[in-house]
Design brief:
Blueprint (H helix, E strand, L loop, with lengths): L2 E9 L4 H12 L4 E7 L2 E7 L5 H10 L3 E5 L1
Antiparallel strand pairs: 1-3, 1-4, 2-3
């Protein structure tokens, strides 16, 4: 298992409900562990053996938001 920490800038978030929604969706994806989610930004730990940037972006979009950047 290769874990790395990523920071994702997220568009479309405006409240605590958005934070809860994104946390719930990211937590459901195998290989992604949310570390800190706040309005506009998510820090996650990902297993690079099973998770690609495209998988992370798809999860964010599934929650109803957009990815501005992944670092």
């Amino acid at each position: 298992m290769n874990r790395v920490e990523k920071t994702i800038l997220v568009g479309g978030m405006s409240c605590g409900g958005c934070v809860n929604s994104l946390t719930r969706v990211l937590s459901a994806v195998p290989g992604i562990a949310p570390l800190a989610i706040e309005v506009g930004k998510a820090t996650v730990s990902i297993d690079t053996d099973v998770v690609t940037p495209a998988i992370v972006a798809a999860a964010v979009e599934r929650a109803g938001f957009s990815v501005i950047s992944q670092e």
